[in-house]
Amino acid sequence: MVEIEAVIALARAAGDAILEVYERADLGEQQKSDSSPLTEADLAAHHVLMAGLAKLTPGIPVLSEESVDPGWEVRASWKRYWLVDPLDGTKEFIKRNGEFTVNIALIDAGVPVLGVVSVPVRNIVYAGVLGTGAWRIDADGCTDISTRSMQGRGSQGLPVTVVASRSHGADTVAQWLDSISRRVGEIETRNMGSSLKLCLVAEGSADIYPRLALTAEWDTAAAQAVVEAAGGVVLAADLSPLRYNTKADLLNPYFFVLGDQDYPWRELLAEG
After folding, report:
1. pLDDT given at position 3
2. Which of 5, 127, 207, 208 has the highest CB neighbour number within 10 Å of its CB?
3. What is the pLDDT of residue 166?
4. Cα separation, 181 vs 165, whole angstroms
5. What's the pLDDT tens digit per position in 66-108?
6. How many angstroms separate the most distant Cα atoms in the chain?
7. CA 243 – CA 179 distance, rounded (Å)
8. Structural domains in the chain?
9. Whose CA is closest to 249, among 214, 223, 225?
């Protein structure tokens, strides 16, 4: 298995490259063909990660948001590969609110088995290895993290914490919240950018994250590894496990990030 410490160090190096651009007045902003924003920081982090992963694991392919998709004919043969988003939350980066991350995931047979999510501005790293554990690394050191129990929440007392996107699917999520609150009781919402939303569930700061808008596979893989290493699960809208590199396009279905797997979330979600 790849040493998680080496991947964390690489994520931090990419974060340093991002912060060099973040401190400038001109972020070198441009638009990609899909009209999404791109900055010099995205490209700087991309180059750090591509070179670093090639050196760390020479035989394992790397797919980055900022690289050229080799096509399904090639990707279909990949059992094990790196999936990275050099700067997840470019809109948050441009807003300079600090809610952007570096995402690195190792995918094995469609499953994210190792993930690192670095938050450069806050000097925080979330990391997880499936079957081993998940951690938060900050100024206070390295702390084990795990998803929290729903016992005593909702209709039992404390509110259920739902984390939602700042930028995408707000109306759809509002309708879903109205529906689910009738069944689980009091709800509080937290808005957050980038893959940090999944990390809030992983560290036990939130209970569920409904993603009812489009994402790409590189947006979610690293944080999914952290969530599932911490005891949670990420399910597609049909309640099957969210998996990677199973089709020609690189878009995720709508999905739900669940913290407490003992709570009857699946039954509630199946009811619609």
Report:
1. 92
2. 207
3. 65
4. 18
5. 999 999 999 999 999 999 999 999 989 999 999 999 999 999 9
6. 52
7. 27
8. 4-144 (3.30.540.10), 154-270 (3.40.190.80)
9. 214
The length of the chain is 272
237 Cβ contact list (under 8 Å, min separation 6): 253, 254, 255, 256
Token digits for 105? 């995931």
Computed from CA positions of residues 220, 67, 27, 5, in that sequence, does the dihedral angle turn out positive or negative? Answer: positive
Distance CA 130, CA 213 (A): 26
pLDDT tens, residue by residue, 63-74: 999 999 999 999
Q: CA 126, CA 164: separation in Å to the nearest integer?
A: 19
Q: Is the pLDDT of residue 185 over 80?
A: yes
Residue with tokens 């929290």: 148
- Dihedral sign for Cα 226, 227, 230, 236, please: negative
Alpha-carbon gap, residue 9 to 21, rounded angstroms? 19
pLDDT of residue 172: 84
